[in-house]
């Protein structure tokens, strides 16, 4: 398929959203650069990162970028960029500085808007559980919700993945 | 657009559901009474209420009704009523009396059914996270789920908002 | 309607998924065996089980099977089997042995694949809240997400229920 300029893949935890995004990237037939936002800070994250890595084609180029994704998008390698995921990027920004978040989000959105190669962004739905008792968790889910709205507004194709099954929310498969 | 008698707008936290409901009310071309259920009991709620207020047209009439929404619906002002939101209303009822909830819900549903002007109700999806450890939170999400089912059953139009994008679950845009 | 070999009904807590699955079973016109996975270990569960039981037709046969659902599917009674639900089954397996889970899941999927009567499986969406702080809860939602993906992959019909309203994610109503 011909990838649009920006594709957003939404889904819950273990919904199959990363796998679906990887299929899209493979089916584009162009070379893939995988931008990984996760850092292996503990055993659980290491196990999760390794599991994801093993599910991806070995010839993909992987770049680990916990924070400055915008810089990559401004001078992208040829092919398609698969950013997995906006939620971990947001979490990394949160841990660094909650107040600097708005600026960083604007930078990311601007870089996505002007990126010269197609981009696929994976992001989490986190807002349909019960209100968290923890105030940082409440702030985070607000920020994640607004980021998803902003990403969806500029994406040509938005797909929600539920139990591995894609539902097109905006645009259509070419 | 011509508003049906009852419209239900569902979505998670920061999903864009309130914004979408406001667009519906504006596009109806008739005067809007905004029924706000939230009370500013702390700084976080005050900030949230102010943010919502600034996003709404200034000429809208706003009524703050934490509990007795049914009374407003029984003698409504002309135009359309935008009730934002059923989740905070339910939470207010919960805090007052969990046992009186069934009666209050029946009153609300009856008032919605017989209201002489169109009503748009905003409500939260809270049931697709992990089971809460807190038993009150478990009761609340059960009650919210059942309220959404009851509202959806009597609404002509039901829309689920995900990342700002509407998905029609019942009825259609006129 | 003519039931497919395997139907998966997904939804959040109190979304109306069990009620919808029961309607499907009734509308099939064939005799129903209800496989209940929940055990009444405390008052809250007893109340919930009783409420579900009272909503079902009295002539249905009910079998309580907290763990070995595969054995029932291998020698099924005539008619349709309604399994409610995969989430409680998964939770029961988790409590017994997290390490034995993969084997038990493979047994279940194999038994569903080869079952000689139509089966309707109810399962929960638990992955779209905030990341749980509890590591067992995180493991559980991963396992539930993957189980839903696996069930959806072999089901002919997959329906997501939101506020009592069905959305077909895969296949179609016959």
- The largest sheet of chain A has its strands arranged as 3-2-4-5-1-6-7
Report the mean per-residue pLDDT of chain A as an integer. 94
Question: How many DSSP H or I helices of chain A?
Answer: 6
Structural class, from secondary structure content of chain A?
A: alpha/beta
Order of helices and strands of chain A: EHEHEHEHHEHEE
β-sheet strand percentage of chain A? 15-25%
Instruction: Please give the largest β-sheet of chain A.
Output: 7 strands, mixed
Write down how many β-strands of chain A occur, each being a DSSP E stretch of 2 or more residues: 7
Provide the low-confidence segments of chain A as ranges: none
| Assembly of the depicted chains | homotrimer
Largest interface: A-B, 28 and 24 residues
The best one-word shape of chain A is globular
Q: Which bin fits the share of residues in helices of chain A?
A: 40-55%
Radius of gyration of chain A: 15 Å
Compute the separation of the termini of chain A in Å: 6 Å
Keywords:
alpha/beta; homotrimer; 7 strands; seven-stranded mixed sheet; 174 residues; 43% helix
Brief sketch in words of this structure:
The structure is a homotrimer of 174-residue chains. Chain A is of the alpha/beta class and 174 residues long.
